[in-house]
C-alpha cells in the first residue's frame, strides 16, 4: 500500500515546530511535496527549511536513518543543508496532530534555486550535466559505505521495480498517449534492461536526483554550480546506475534534444566512477523508463489531493521519454 499524504496548515505546522524544536516561526510558507508538508520558515534567527511527514513505530527508524545518512554526507563535505536538531537532541522530532505521530525535520535554508526554475538555456548545458554526473558519482562513493536501512525500503519510484510499477498503474491512466508511452517503456525494459538486470551493481542510492532536488547558484565564472542535494526520502538499496540515469532523465527533460544531456551526465559520472558494461547498456533505457514512470504515476494520481503538484512534476516527461526511446 502506498504512503498517504500529510497536509498541514501553516498554523498547525507552526505549533508542531514549536513543540518539537522550540522554534517560533514568524511565517511559514508552504512548498510543494509528493507526500509531506514542507515549509520555508522565517524566524527571528533566520530562515529554515521544515519537512513534516506521517510517522509511526514502523516508519520512524527509517526516517531517523535517512536523516543520519544525510547528516553524515554533509559532514563529509557533500553539498547539502546542515540539520537543526530538536529539543530532544534528535535529528527527527516527533510531534502529534490529532493523535497521529508527525516526524519533523528542520535544516538550514540554502539560498539557491532548484534547477527546475532556471531557464533551460542556462541550466541545461552540457557543462552543467557533466558537473551533475560528477556530483552524483562522488555522492555514490560515500553512500555505498553508509549503513543499510533498518528494514527493507521500496517505493513506487524505485528503478529496479519500475516496469512492474508502470504495469500496475497503466489501468488507472486515461490519457492514450501516456498509456502508449508506458507500453513502449515496458518493451524497452524487456529489450535493454531485463537481459542485464542481474549484472547491475547494487548499492545504497539517493534515487531521486531530479530537477527540484538539486539546488544551484552561479559560480564566480558565471556557470551554474551545485549548491545542495536535498530530499533523501527515496533513498534505498537499488541499482547503482539509477543514480546517474535519474539525474540525466530530468536534465534531458529540459533540452530540445535530450541525448546530449544524457551523454553529459554519463561523462561526468564516468570521470569519477566508470560504468560496468551492463550499466552502460542499461543507462539510457533506465533514464527513458524513469520519465515514463513519472508520466504514468502522475497521470494516475491526477485527480488526487495533489493534482496540481502532479501536473507540475510530470511536465515534459512524455515528450522527452518518447524522444529518447526513438533514439535507442
Compute the number of helices: 11
Any idea of the CATH class of the largest domain?
Answer: Alpha Beta
Radius of gyration (CA) equals 19 Å
SS strand fraction: 15-25%
**Beta-strand segment tally:** 11
Note poorly predicted spans. Answer: none
The name CATH uses for the topology of the largest domain is: Aminoglycoside 3'-phosphotransferase, Chain: A, domain 2
User: What's the number of domains?
Assistant: 2
Order of helices and strands: HEEEHEEEEHHHHEEEEHHHHH
Name the helicity range: 40-55%
Largest sheet: 6 strands, antiparallel
Taking all residues together, what is the mean pLDDT?
Answer: 94
Category by helix and strand content: alpha+beta
CATH A-level architecture of the largest domain: Alpha-Beta Complex
Straight-line distance between termini: 34 Å
The CATH superfamily name of the largest domain is Aminoglycoside phosphotransferase (APH), C-terminal lobe
Assign an overall shape: globular
Give a description of the structure.
The chain has 328 residues and is of the alpha+beta class. It has 2 domains: 10-108, Phosphorylase Kinase, domain 1, CATH 3.30.200.20; 113-327, Aminoglycoside 3'-phosphotransferase, Chain: A, domain 2 (Alpha-Beta Complex), CATH 3.90.1200. The protein is 44% helix and 19% strand. It contains 11 helices and 11 strands. It has helices at 10-21, 60-75, 120-123, 126-143, 162-169, 176-193, 242-252, 258-272, 277-300, 307-314, 317-327, and strands spanning 25-31, 37-43, 46-55, 83-84, 93-97, 100-108, 113-114, 202-205, 214-218, 224-229, 236-239. Strands 1, 2, 3, 4, 5 and 6 form a 6-stranded antiparallel sheet that branches. A 3-stranded antiparallel sheet has the order 7-9-10, with helices on one face. Helix 4 packs across helix 8 (258-272) and helix 9 (277-300) packs antiparallel against helix 11 (317-327). The radius of gyration is 19 Å and the shape is globular. The protein starts with 9 loop residues before the first helix and ends with a helix.
Amino acid at each position: 500500500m502506498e504512503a498517504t499524504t500529510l497536509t498541514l496548515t501553516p498554523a498547525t505546522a507552526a505549533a508542531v515546530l514549536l513543540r518539537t524544536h522550540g522554534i517560533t516561526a514568524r511565517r511559514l510558507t508552504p512548498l510543494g511535496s509528493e507526500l509531506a508538508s514542507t515549509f520555508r520558515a522565517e524566524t527571528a534567527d533566520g530562515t529554515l527549511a521544515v519537512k513534516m511527514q506521517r510517522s509511526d513505530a514502523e516508519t520512524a527508524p527509517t526516517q531517523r536513518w535517512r536523516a543520519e545518512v544525510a547528516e553524515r554526507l554533509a559532514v563529509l563535505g557533500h553539498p547539502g543543508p546542515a540539520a537543526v536538531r530538536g529539543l530532544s537532541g534528535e535529528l527527527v522530532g516527533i510531534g502529534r496532530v490529532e493523535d497521529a505521530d508527525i516526524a519533523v525535520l528542520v535544516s538550514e535554508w540554502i539560498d539557491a534555486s532548484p534547477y527546475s526554475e532556471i531557464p533551460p538555456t542556462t541550466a541545461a548545458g552540457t557543462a552543467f550535466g557533466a558537473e551533475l554526473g560528477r556530483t552524483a558519482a562522488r555522492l555514490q562513493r560515500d553512500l555505498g559505505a553508509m549503513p543499510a536501512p533498518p528494514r527493507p525500503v521500496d517505493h513506487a519510484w524505485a528503478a529496479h521495480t519500475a516496469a512492474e510499477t508502470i504495469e500496475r498503474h497503466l489501468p488507472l491512466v486515461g490519457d492514450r498517449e501516456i498509456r502508449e508511452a508506458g507500453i513502449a517503456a515496458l518493451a524497452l525494459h524487456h529489450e535493454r534492461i531485463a537481459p542485464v538486470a542481474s549484472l547491475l551493481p547494487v548499492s545504497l542510492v539517493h534515487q531521486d536526483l531530479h530537477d527540484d532536488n538539486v539546488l544551484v547558484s552561479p559560480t564566480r565564472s558565471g556557470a551554474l554550480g551545485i549548491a545542495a542535494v536535498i530530499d533523501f526520502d527515496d533513498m534505498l538499496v537499488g541499482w547503482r546506475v539509477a543514480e546517474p540515469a535519474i539525474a540525466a532523465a530530468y536534465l534531458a527533460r529540459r533540452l530540445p534534444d535530450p541525448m546530449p544531456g544524457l551523454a553529459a551526465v554519463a561523462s561526468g559520472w564516468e570521470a569519477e566512477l566508470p560504468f560496468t558494461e551492463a550499466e552502460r547498456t542499461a543507462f539510457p533505457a533506465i533514464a527513458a523508463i524513469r520519465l515514463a514512470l513519472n508520466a504514468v504515476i502522475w497521470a494516475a494520481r491526477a485527480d488526487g489531493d495533489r493534482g496540481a503538484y502532479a501536473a507540475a512534476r510530470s511536465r515534459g516527461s512524455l515528450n522527452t521519454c518518447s524522444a529518447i526511446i526513438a533514439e535507442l
